[in-house]
Every structure is written in C-alpha cells, then in structure tokens.
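Hi X.,

You mentioned you wanted examples for the new student's onboarding notes, showing what a folding record looks like when two proteins sit in one file. Here is a clean example. The first protein comes first, with its sequence line followed by its structure tokens.
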Amino acid sequence: MNALTPHLSALQIILPLLAAPLCTIFRLPRVTWGIAMVVGVLCSFNAIAILEQVQSSGTIIYALGGWAAPWGIEYRIDDANAFVLVIISVINVFGILYARTSIPAELSEDRISWLYTAWLLCFTGLCGITISGDVFNVFVFLEISSLSTYVLVSFGTDKRALTAALRYLIVGTVAATFYVIGIGLLYALTGTLNMADLAQRLPEVTAHRTVLVAFGFITVGLSIKMALFPFHTWLPNAYAFAPNAVTAFLAGTATKAAIYVFMRLVLTIFPAGFFANSTIAYLIILAVGILGAFVASTIAFFRQDLKQMFAWSSIGQIGYMAIGLGLATSAGVAASFLHLFNHALMKTAVFMAIGCLFVATGSTTLNSLKNAGKRMPWTSAAILIGGLSLIGIPFTTGFVSKWYLVTAALELDMWWLAALVLAGSLVTAAYVWKFVETAYFRTDSNTTYTRSEAPLSLLIPTWILVIANIYFGINAQFTGTQALRAANAIFGFSS
C-alpha cells in the first residue's frame, strides 16, 4: 500500500480509464454495473486518501512519466481541488448505486454497457479536469468528459434527448474553442502551459493586451461549460431529457468541475490583483451571478416538468457561486466552494427523487404528480427537503451556503448584495411551492400510479444524500473548514 501512496493521483485517472473499455467487452448489464461500482468505490476511497494526504503533507505534485514541469505534465493537488475531487468521486458512487435500478427501467439491455462505458469516461474526464496542473491538459480532459456527456444525454428515452445532445455538442464545441484560443494566447506570450509557471510569468507581461484578451476567451469558454447565465442554453434540455440517473450524476459533478477550473484560472493563474482590481470584470461577474439567480429561478417557476424546473434551478444556484467568486475575497470564494459542495448534495438527491416519481408514474410533469405526497411519501419528502435546502431554510445545507455568502457580502459593506441574495430565496420558494401544492394539496382520480412507492434500491441512495443534506446543515464544521482551506489554497496557489 505504501508503494501506491505516491501514485494515488495517477490511479484516480487510470482506474476508470481502464475500466471503461471493459464494459464494452463484458456486455452483461449486471457485470458492467459491477465494474462501474467497484471502480467508483475505489476512486472514492482514493480521493479521500488524497485529501488526507494533502492536509497532512501539503500540496501533491505528481510529474507524469517523471518529466518535471514545465516541460512535463503534472497533476497538482491542494486543498481546493482535493475537496472538489472528493465531491465528484462520492457523488459518482451514489449515481452508480442509483443507476442499478433506474437505468434498466429506461434503457434496453443492449444499450446499458455502452452507457456505463460513457459514464466511466465522463468520470475520468471530470477527475482529470480537477487534478491537472496544466491548462492544456485541462482542455484534453474537458473534451473527454464533454464527449462522454453528449453520449450520456443521447441515451434518454425521449426523442428530444438527441436534439438536446446535439445542441450540447455544438455549444460545448464553441466553449472548447474559446478556451483553447485563450490558453493558446497565454502560451504565445509566456511559453508555458503549466498553471504554477503561468502564475509566476504572467505578472511580467501584464501590460500586454493579449493577457486581457486571453482572460476574456477563457472566461467565456468556461462560463459556457459551467452553465453560467447567459451561457446556459445547453443545460435545461440536457438535464431534462437525459436518463434520470445520468441527470443526477451530471447535476452533482459536471458543472462543479467547470466551476472549480473557472475559480482556479480566474483567481490564481492571472496576475495577483488582475481580477480583483478590474472594475469591469468585477461588475460583470457579480451582474451575471445576480441575473442568473433571479432570471433562472423565475423561469423555473413557469416550468411544468419537474426535471426542467430543477434544471433551471441549477442555473440559478450557479449564479450564487458566481456571486461568491465575483467578491474576489477569501470569504466569498469559500462561500462558493461551500455552495458547490452543498448544491451537489441537494440537487443530486432531488433529481434522484424525481427519477423515483418517474418509475412510479412514467412521467415527471406536475399534472401527473397530484396526490404524490400521500401515495409516495418518502419520494415526495426527499424532493421537499431538497427544495427547502435550495431556499435556504435553517438546518439544511442551503442555509449554511447563503449564510456564508451573505456574511462575505457584509464584510465588504455590500448590504444591497446581501439583500438580493435573501430576495433570491423568495423566488426559489415560489417554484418549490408549486411542487408542494401539487403533490400535497391536489388530488386527481385520473392519476395512475404503477406502484405506491419507489423501490428501496432507488430510495436508499436518495435518502442517504437527503440525510447528509440535513446533517451538514446542522453541523457545518467539516464543510466550512474545507471550504475556507480551499479558498486559501486558491489565493495562495502560486506561492
């Protein structure tokens, strides 16, 4: 075991990458699920071991092939990306656990092995994005995860899934082009692609307009990948028409990796103070964050399909993370990291619960869910608690996130921003109430339930995340500490 310790970061990529083709060889659904599950559990424990190693020994720097940076590619893991890696890995395990029952209910047997192949490749890409210390390597892993995600979305039973996947592919290609142009400009200016090296060299060339242009290209590209308003157009349909297990997995992982990279590049790669002292950039990030939180939540209120409603909700919640980033302070970025963790918990649980409703009713539209609170109490309660967390009700993780964000705004005497964050909770409450009213206060004799409650194999992973949502809402010591460490790592990256 001691011999493997120095190579934990490499194992995080190698395990799922090697397991993916195995799913195309062993075509039996149970076997392919077992492969994905074993790899997911191993990677989850591996990610936790990496986090512990970082906290005990400091930043991990792993040179691939023994070639030291900047000539070689390195994985560089500190408190920030180690925290994100744990989030992605743990959510992946719950997604696969949930998929065991959910996927066969939606897909034919001959397609399941291909889904797990794409799933493992997507997970490989997300882990690579998170731990890479090289901006071009981030692009490579970004494309691995994106191409796999297009395939995952296309597996949806609704024909509109193909259209959603195509739209995602086109928009994602534009995003990747913007990003690679940005890093190309940085390479032309500095002669390096290593993040730590870039952070050292860019201050010497700050006067060049190329730096600002590169900043713009990278910002737009990553804004699309993280579905930041108004670059969010791919997300609602991709989440709505993908298989339920895929939606839950993507909601808790895909945008989280992109948000991390956005924070890393914006706040650490560019010269110290470049972003914080740029009034225009500061106002734009705050503006799009606020607009995203309100506009997306308002649109969510008018959706009649639960998956679309909570897909738009995700765009709104990403807006809150952008607000924390826009503050450009340790407290603000810590609030963003904390909300990244909390949102992964609550939104994964909500989409899993929506999948439970689909199994029972064959639909996720509000009209088909009348009396669901009585017929499916556990499933309905899971959505309700997730919704309360999105609002920010005390004793949920959402409350902790917004408390940190409001506190960060007040530290800068931005009373108006704190007020807007609280007002955003009222808009969230409006669309959550639509579900509550339909499920608990409306009855319809024409609504057909194929079963009284979802199978335990679906409810157990859902409720573990729901309970975690409550636990970390009551006891936020661990998550709060990790978020602060992550924020400090972001600002101290180049040191």
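Then the second protein repeats the pattern, sequence line and then tokens:
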Amino acid sequence: MEKLQAALQKAREKRAETLNEPTPTKSARPKSRLLRNDKPDLTTLWADLEPMDIDKTRLRRRKLLTIDAGHEATPFDMLRTKVLQTLAANDWKRIAITSPSPGSGKTTTSANLAASLSRQSELRIMLMDMDMRRPALSNAFMQRGTKSTSDVLEGRVTFADQALWIGTNLAISMNFNAMRDPSDLFLRQRTSEVLDEIEKTYKPNVMLFDMPPLLVNDDTSAFLKNVDCAMIVVEAGVSTLEQVDMCEKELAEQTNVMGMVLNKCRFHSDGYGYYSYNKSY
C-alpha cells in the first residue's frame, strides 16, 4: 500500500511539473537570421567587397604615391588635411574632381587623395570613376574587369558586386569600357537615387568623384547636382588663366568651389617636387 501511495505521489508531482511548464509560443521560439531581418554591420558590408590585388611598387611607377606614408606622399597629405578641414567646416561629403582640359592629372590627384584619406583608419572613403568617355582609374590602379560604374548607375549590377576595396576603408568603383553619352545617364533621377542608396548603405565619410574635364563636354555639368563641392586640378604651364577662370565660374554656378590644385609644378627646393597646391580651401 505504501508503495502504491508513493507511486501515485510521484505521478502527481510529475504531472504538476508538466502543467507548470510554459507552453512554447511563436515569440519564445528562436528566429532564424532571415526572420530576424538582421542587417550586416558596416564593417561586414565593407569587408564583403572584393579586395583589390595591387602591386605597390608598380603603382608607384604610375605616380600612385600615397598608399603608404612617406616624403613623396607629403603634398597629398597636406591636401588631405585641408580637404578634411573644409568638409568638416561646411558639413560636406561629396567632392567632384575636375580640370579645365585633359591631361591635367585629375585622375592621379583623385587616386592619391583617396589613398591618403584612407590612411586615416577611422574614415571610410569612396572613389568613383565618372569620366566614362575616357576612363582612367582602372589604369591608375592597374586593374581589369567587366563590371563598371556605369553598370551600377544603370542598375545592371550592385555596388557590392562591382566595387573593389583596398585595406579596410577605401572602396573604388571603376569603369573598364568607354561610354558614348554619359551626360544622359548623369541627368537621370535614378542616378541620383542610386548614389543616395550607396551612401545610405555604406555610410562613407568622404565620396570622391573623378570627373571629365569641365570644358570638353557637358558630362561634369550634368553630374554636379549630385555633389557638395568641386575641386579644380590645374596643370602648371599648360592650363591658361582664361581656362581656369571659365572653369571656376561654371562650377560656381552649380556647386561650391572647394579650391584648386596646381599639378605638375616642378620645383625641388624642399625635396617635394611633383605636386603642389595653391589657393585657400
């Protein structure tokens, strides 16, 4: 009899434990990553870009001098500091880099400024090739490919599938094929929307756009609505005062003129000979 009572008591206790145990609900069940709608953080987004395979020695021969610090990088580092101060003072982020005419070195300036900025590890830098008739960034970085910046703007590929990155904080979007009429693409509202989406997703601190020469066609003018300011690269001894004046006036009608970079100014008094800049930023 005692054994039967003990068995009954044990059964009652077991049943009571079962009744007191909370019934699983939908909210209590663990959700999958997809159901939680988790978004990757910025570090993951940038790390997911395809890394660029570079040869620093060969790039230096192409006058890409600022991936590492050194005396040759100093002029661009000085420019970097002025640029960052100006951006912070005006709450700007997007810079168009153009020139009065071809051959002034705007692409070399754009690439070196981007690399110099990227050595500030707390910053996220983007450089995009908008010179689509004569793309040059891919040559500056010695890259080959099939997916271009134009494909991103036209919605054929995503920025994530097209852009390459250097280090941990420099993303570069390049063109590998020439385009016949970029101004038509730049005038589209969708182009502005794509750039806004890229900025919203990747949250870069600085966005640089390597633009066509301003006085050659209407491509740069068509794009200027998408930037906060513009920088003019002037070739010493080649760009005329009339060209510089025309360039500055046209830019000032559409955006803020950040300043001018005097390129290919050859002097050697301080050991820094190839690049210089003038005018207050």
